[in-house]
Each structure stands twice: as structure tokens, then as C-alpha cells.
Amino acid sequence: MSPVETTRSITKNSMIKPIMKPIILLFSLVISSLAGAQTLLPPPAMANVAQKRLIDEFIEVSHYREALINYAKEYIELKMFDYDVDPPKELLTKDQARSIIKNFDFDGFKVSMYSSFSLIPEENLKELIQFHKTIGGTLSRGNSALLMTPTIDLNIKNQIDYAIENIKK
Q1: Does 138 score more than 90 pLDDT?
Q2: Positive or negative CA dihedral for 19, 20, 21, 24?
Q3: Read out DSSP for 144-168?
């Protein structure tokens, strides 16, 4: 290597080192702050034994199963046709819709209800049960009104959408 090339190499290396230190320091700070920002999510709410008993009683006296199935039927009716085309295109037959409702796994869905309703204080659950007992368990004609949380809504829609996808196969 000639003396000129050696000088260029030294100059080039000496320019890189001062630039690299702040970049490495900044990179380290970003990585450490991102790693520290990662926190564990709290576990999902779960009902205790007393709450489960109250929730089961609420489901029974409010006819929640029937109301939830009515809600599912209405959701399926919305999914039966593609209204974005003219004329609307049938995506699901009535027999397929009936099959989805018939095979709806309400007992498997109870986990979602236990989780959602466990956030309601026991005293309020008792009052809800008493209220439903006094009105005969039906809030509306056709039992179409029900206590709904975003979690229950999302889970029932996901379960129905999954059933629709599988029935089309």
C-alpha cells in the first residue's frame, strides 16, 4: 500500500468511528426502550364458582340461549346475500342457515359469557336475575333483546362466520 492510500484509509476509518458511536448508542436506546415497553396482558376475566352459578341462573331465567340464537339467526340472515351486486347474490341457502343454527354450540359459547358477565358484580347479577323473574324472562316480543358485550358480540359473529365458511366447503 502506498503512503497516500494508507492516509486515505486512516482518514476514512477515523471518520466512520465517530459516526458509528452515536448510531450504536441510539440503536441500543431504541431497542432497550422497546423491550422495556413490552408488558404482559392481564389474564382474561374468569368467573368464580358463585358467579358461574349466578350466570347460569341468569341464562336460564332470561332465556338467554333463545335470545342469543335469535341474534345469531338475524346475523345469518344478513350474511345470506351479497347486497353489493344487483340483483343480490345468494351466498347461503336457507337449509345451510338452518344447519348452522341447529349445530350452534351454546355450551361451548358459555366460556365467553362467563368471562364477560364475570365483570358484573354479584349483587347486580342477583338484581338482573330478580328483574327477569318479575317480567317472565322475556324483555321483548320474540325474545330479540339481550344483554350483550363487545366480547360476546365478536365471539358469536366469529363462530357464525367460521360455520358459514365451513358449510360452503
Answers
A1: no
A2: positive
A3: ------HHHHHHHHHHHHHHHHHHH
Asked if the model's pLDDT at residue 6 lies above 90, the reply is no
pTM to 2 decimal places: 0.68
Cα separation, 55 vs 117, whole angstroms: 7
- CA distances, 142 to each of 59, 77, 94, 123, 149 (Å): 16, 16, 20, 28, 20
d(CA 73, CA 104): 10
Quote the CA–CA distance of 88 and 82 in Å, as a whole number: 5
Residue 65 confidence (pLDDT) above 60 = yes
Place of cell 365467553: 112
Picking from 96, 58, 104, the residue whose alpha carbon sits closest to that of residue 79 is: 96
Q: What is the pLDDT of residue 145?
A: 81
Cell of 143: 325474545
Q: Torsion angle of alpha carbons 64, 69, 74, 75, nearest 10°?
A: 100
Tell me if 97 sits within 8 A of 157, measured CB to CB. Answer: no
- In this prediction, residue 48 carries a pLDDT of 83
